[in-house]
Amino acid sequence: MAGNKYNLTEKKQKNPLYRTLVNPQLVEELYQKIMAKFVVEKKYKDPDYSAQKLAKELETNSRYISAVINLRFQDNYSQMVNEFRVKEAMYMLKDKHCERMSMEEVATQVGFSNRQSFYAAFYKRTNCTPREFRMKALAELDALKKERSEKRKAKQAKAEATETK
């Protein structure tokens, strides 16, 4: 079974009471602050950055952080962090400038502490390994370049044919 390739398990649905008791305005404020930490400051790249550290920086507690992440992302803290990391890795794996980087280097750059957790999170999100994703992305890039080159040549040939008439 493909889902067991990286020891993945389905997440259990839990709905602790405190999540429904959080003030909607507080949820929105904390969400904006969390997004700033992850989108602007890219805190997800730090493998030691925890929900507790985030809560301390935002001067709140980890239960509120957990509630906001669950309400806004429908995930727990670890899953949300991995989502950011995998998206960054996908970007890097498509980038020709990162083509020579090993999977371990990509994993480290985006905040994973080991190759196995990187592969498991990546596979869970994309249903393929990082290497498979890179090969496919680079092949698509090469095909696009070839297509553009052929169009340019056809356009040039047409222009030359028009000039000779």
What's the helix and strand layout?
Layout: H1 17-21, H2 24-40, H3 51-57, H4 62-73, H5 77-94, H6 103-110, H7 115-126, H8 130-164
Mean pLDDT: 87
What class, by secondary structure content?
A: mainly alpha
Q: How many whole angstroms does the radius of gyration measure?
A: 22 Å
**Secondary-structure element series:** HHHHHHHH
Distance between the termini: 64 Å
Largest sheet: none
Number of strands: 0
Poorly predicted tracts of residues: none
Q: What's the assembly state of these chains?
A: single chain
The helix content, as a percent range, equals 55-70%
| Count of alpha and pi helical runs | 8
Shape: elongated
Fraction in beta strands: under 5%
Task: Provide structural commentary.
By secondary structure, the protein is mainly α. 69% of the residues lie in helices and 0% in strands. The longest helix has 35 residues. It is elongated. It starts with 16 loop residues before the first helix and ends with a helix. The model has no long low-confidence stretch (mean pLDDT 87).
